[in-house]
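stage 2 :: seqdesign
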């Protein structure tokens, strides 16, 4: 069994840390605030942009999982120092750096997204995510670090709450039979990354040397529109089909005056206004992890939300 360091304890970081612990590995989670320990997981409070402290916390690690991200509206300023610190810790310790990425770097594309597409984003968030990977990739090619990036679409599933487009703004409402508002065109095909599949893929590529040095797409089921996913969630919940409304550009523009999150979403609205489809066949041709069947994803998500909301009272 190995020692692993997970940076961040949001949905992806917590799912990855708990999967590693369940497999019998030793896990240290790094966050700015720390947490109480849990079985198999040690929590350490430190600023991950402090490369010296992060390196010390990562001594002896087989893998460092970069699952943290700055606040959405501060990406441009805070991603570069975080990425540089992760790379420095990987270089100093020899641990493989497993980076959780997304699809912003491609920018708007026509047709399914593959890993061979150029990183041609023109918006600030897409450009910074592309730069983060290019920095790590070049260091890998120079033989200074070992790294791999897993790119996921929008998170969905147990543990995904406020930040998910099929999460806190959707599931509690549909459980009560209330109308739901979706960003963009609710009928545009869209790929969804099921959180447990993200964690399984991150852990798998950490141990596969042939995966290193490039980016891969997380195993993903065929695209379904926001409306189709909401209909499936409502059917699983046993509620009547709920009304799904698209958020128009005019309404988004007005709402963004009062919401920093909605203001930032304007850059990537194209992901919901048009087809946004992930091709994960390259990963599936090489490795074992597969995307969970959609029916199982939906069942687990509804069950989790019911428990979560009951616990909150």
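stage 2 :: out
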């Amino acid at each position: 069994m190995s020692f692993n360091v997970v940076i961040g304890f949001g949905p992806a970081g917590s799912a990855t840390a708990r999967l590693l612990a369940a497999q019998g590995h030793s896990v240290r989670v790094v966050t700015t605030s720390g947490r109480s320990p849990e079985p198999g997981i040690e929590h350490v409070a430190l600023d991950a942009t402090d490369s010296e402290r992060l390196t010390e916390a990562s001594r002896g690690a087989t893998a460092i999982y970069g699952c943290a991200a700055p606040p959405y509206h501060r990406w441009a300023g805070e991603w570069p120092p975080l990425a540089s610190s992760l790379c420095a810790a990987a270089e100093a310790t020899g641990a493989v750096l497993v980076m959780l990425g997304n699809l912003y770097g491609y920018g708007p594309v026509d047709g399914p997204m593959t890993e061979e597409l150029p990183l041609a984003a023109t918006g600030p968030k897409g450009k910074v995510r592309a730069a983060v990977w290019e920095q790590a990739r070049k260091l890998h090619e120079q033989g200074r670090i070992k790294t791999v990036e897993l790119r996921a679409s929008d998170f969905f599933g147990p543990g995904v709450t406020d930040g998910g487009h099929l999460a806190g703004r959707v599931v509690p409402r549909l459980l009560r039979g209330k109308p739901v508002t979706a960003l963009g065109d609710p009928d545009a095909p869209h790929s969804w990354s099921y959180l447990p599949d993200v964690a399984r893929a991150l852990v798998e590529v950490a141990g596969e040397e042939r995966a290193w040095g490039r980016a891969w797409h997380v195993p993903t089921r065929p695209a379904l529109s926001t409306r189709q996913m909401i209909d499936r969630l409502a059917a699983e919940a046993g509620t009547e089909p709920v009304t799904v409304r698209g958020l128009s550009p005019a309404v988004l523009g007005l709402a963004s005056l009062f919401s920093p999150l909605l203001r930032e979403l304007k850059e990537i609205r194209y992901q919901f206004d048009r087809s946004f489809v992930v091709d994960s066949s390259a990963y599936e041709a090489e490795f074992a992890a597969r995307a969970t069947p959609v029916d199982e994803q939906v069942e687990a998500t509804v069950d989790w939300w019911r428990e979560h909301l009951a616990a909150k009272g």
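stage 3 :: structure notes
- DSSP finds twelve helices and eleven strands in the chain.
- The radius of gyration is 19 Å.
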